[in-house]
Amino acid sequence: MAVNTGRRNVRERLATFGFFIFMGTGTSAWFSRLPSVKEILGLQPSSLALMTILGGCGALVGMVVSGVLTNRLGVRRAMLLSASTWCLGMLVASFAIWRLSLPGVVLGLLFNSAGISLWGTVNTVEAGAVERNAEHSVMARFHASYSLGMFLALGLGSLISHLGIPVEVHLAANALVTLGLMACCLLVCPANPQGDDTGPVGDSGADCAGDDRSPMRKQMAAWGDSLVLMLALINVALEASEGAVNDWSSIGLVDSFSAPESMANLAPTVFAAAMIISRMLGPWVIERLGNTVSLYLTLLVSALGILVYSLSPFLVVSLVGTCIWGIGAALGVPIVTTLATRDPSMAAQRASVISTAYYGVSWIIPPAIGFLADHTGVRPALLPLALVLVLVTLLVRPVSRKG
């Protein structure tokens, strides 16, 4: 019996690593070809930002219902729905790029972002459940697998761009292959994964078995939890910083140094490599320094990396800045995820709140960077993110007291 349980846990952990890796490879292929998409559609930075934010509306809708869907459908079915919706969106966007249709790209991104929003919530719930049952910190390594997928996709994107393979062919093939690999992960995942368990242990060890509230009532309760809202604000700053690397760092190098796309993609690739290494070492760091000190460090080192990337007059030093940025950003989201999913009865709802908060603010962040970039250039337009990261350090102490 113990042997069977051990094998089951190994299968589930492998499947969870796969969920994160293929989310990274799937989503980052798009980022690797953004300079080409911008050129093909003839977009200015502000227009690219507007396209991204309109397409991101699907994520906002998805996040509002993702907690409820994850509870109702369970991890496996919710994961299949999310990956299929994302794949459909990417196929539509690829076809629209081929037809030079900006509205078509936005339509595809709507489906794409709705799928990704649900995918992220399911990943968070399942990873939190696996970590709780493992009884030691593994969340950073799950997120390292996402960074590994991101690193592989960005590197492959640079190679494909150098070989001159059309953007639409690359993105469509990536979507179909990723969906197939996700299906394989779902076959490996046990029939009743730990993420489906909304068991009895609460944040303080209290018995939650009597919590028979509907998923929607739990969702509303999560929105009123001060700890969750503070975690959401910290996550907004961290995710905005990480998203800015994907959306703007390669374009910033093209804008400032006239670097070709294949070379400019080194910025997010270096960032991803730095995150992989930092996240693999993450459990060791967190167990020795604790969540509070680790969270302070991740915010401040990220801000330093942004400053170096944005202010350097040399391309190589800017790349060093993205490396510092990646080292700093690596542990923030895993720590927030761990703190948010400690209570299995509320894990899906809390994950949904934290993700929804980011996508809600993302209505402002991309166009703000894009419109500012029209006047200052892309790299200087990222400097306000450093200030935001420094400001949210004020929330770390209250979070440590409540968490």
Task: Describe this protein's structure.
The protein is mainly α. The protein has one domain: Growth Hormone, Chain: A. The chain contains 19 helices and no strands. The chain has helices at residues 2-32, 34-41, 45-55, 57-73, 75-98, 102-134, 139-163, 167-188, 215-223, 226-257, 261-264, 266-311, 315-329, 332-340, 347-361, 365-376, 378-381, 383-391, 396-402. Helix 10 packs across helix 12 (266-311) and helix 10 (226-257) crosses helix 15. The two termini are 35 Å apart. The model is unreliable at 201-210 (pLDDT under 50).
Number of strands: 0
**Which CATH class?**
Mainly Alpha
Q: What is the correct CATH architecture?
A: Up-down Bundle
Rounded to an integer in angstroms, the radius of gyration calculated over CA atoms is: 20 Å
Described by the principal axes of the CA atoms, the overall outline is: globular
Biggest sheet features: none
Give the uncertain stretches in residue-range form. 201-210
Strand content: under 5%
> How many distinct folded domains?
1
Query: What is the distance, rounded to the nearest whole angstrom, between the alpha carbons of the first and last residues?
Result: 35 Å
Tally of separate helices? 19
Helix content class = over 70%
The CATH homologous superfamily is named: MFS general substrate transporter like domains
CATH topology: Growth Hormone, Chain: A
The H-and-E topology, N to C, reads as HHHHHHHHHHHHHHHHHHH
Subcellular location: Cell membrane
Pfam family, one: MFS_1
InterPro entries: MFS, MFS_dom, MFS_trans_sf, MFS_Transporter
Main location: membrane
